[in-house]
Amino acid sequence: MTSIDPTCMFSNKPFSTPLAALGPGSQPPDFMSKPREMSSYRAPSLPEARALAAHREALDVLHRALVALQRQAVGAAVEPIELGHLHDADCALVDQMLGEGEVAAQVAGASGVQAQESVFAGVWRVVYRDGGMVVRDTVEVGAFPRAVAAAARADGRLIPPLPSLRPADTINARAVLEELRERTLAWRSGDPAHVVNLSLMPLSRADGELFEQQLGHGNVRVLSRGHGNCRIASTRAAGVWRVTYFNSQDRVILDTLEVGDVPEVACAARQDLDDSAERLQEMLQWVLAT
């Protein structure tokens, strides 16, 4: 019989990242563990039928997740599925059957949120903590966990006006910041993202210091492994994200600042949600047939 792993799917390891200046060939500091290979869909491991029969509440959670995916397909609003009432074994079975997908996200702080996408894209395990203790435990269906996106918005502020005097030794930061400030003032939710590519841009240490001063560090960190390795961090500027892509040797291949909603690379697309509904339905049909 396949064992049910009762360990929590989230660690308490904090996320941290400085917003350093990156010129061509530069390396940003680490802020998340480095995945070593491209992720692809892997069917979750399932217990034998006899084990599943004893965990009807866990199966009910998965049925409700399927209904939520189907409702999303027709544009209906869906609410998170609460897991607080489940016994540990049922909760562990939910984790086992959902598996671990391509995207993980965390809101830093003692009263934070941790989210892990399942192998069914757009189906998320979302845990809320207060003082290090779990206060809410859910499965959420959608493009990206709402609480994580809301935390990034709440943490943001307008980019302040730039100093009238140009700091010595800056090259491009001032122009970039003026562009970002203009775009954030004009941007509205649902607009296409505006991306500034830092990878090919000469940047000095003074540029990095000005970025730090004007943008700072937000409280949201995201790791996406869907098409290579991508690390995403919110800044303290409303709607501005740092998005950095790495190759298999963990070298930077694209480093950007992005104005918009949650960067698209972290979100489940409409087709992803449809595919997840189909796969989850197939898994549940297999369970009922056994």
What does this 3D model show about the protein?
The chain is α+β, with helices and mostly antiparallel strands and 290 residues long. The chain is 31% helix and 20% strand. It has a ten-stranded antiparallel sheet with strand order 1-5-4-3-2-7-8-9-10-6, with helices on both faces. Strand 8 and strand 9 (240-246) form a beta hairpin. Helix 2 (56-73) runs antiparallel to helix 7. Mean pLDDT is 82; it is low at 1-40.
List keywords for this structure.
290 residues, alpha+beta, Ribosomal Protein S8, Chain: A, domain 1, 2 domains, ten-stranded antiparallel beta sheet, 10 strands
**CATH architectural name of the largest domain:** 2-Layer Sandwich
Q: Work out the strand percent.
A: 15-25%
Total strands:
10
Strand order of the largest sheet: 1-5-4-3-2-7-8-9-10-6
What is the string of helix and strand elements? HHEHEEEEHHEHEEEEH
What spatial form do the alpha-carbon principal axes imply?
A: elongated
User: How many structural units, i.e. domains?
Assistant: 2
Q: Any idea what the radius of gyration is? A: 21 Å
Instruction: Give unreliable regions as ranges.
Output: 1-40
Q: Taking all residues together, what is the mean pLDDT?
A: 82
Helix content: 25-40%
Biggest sheet features? 10 strands, antiparallel
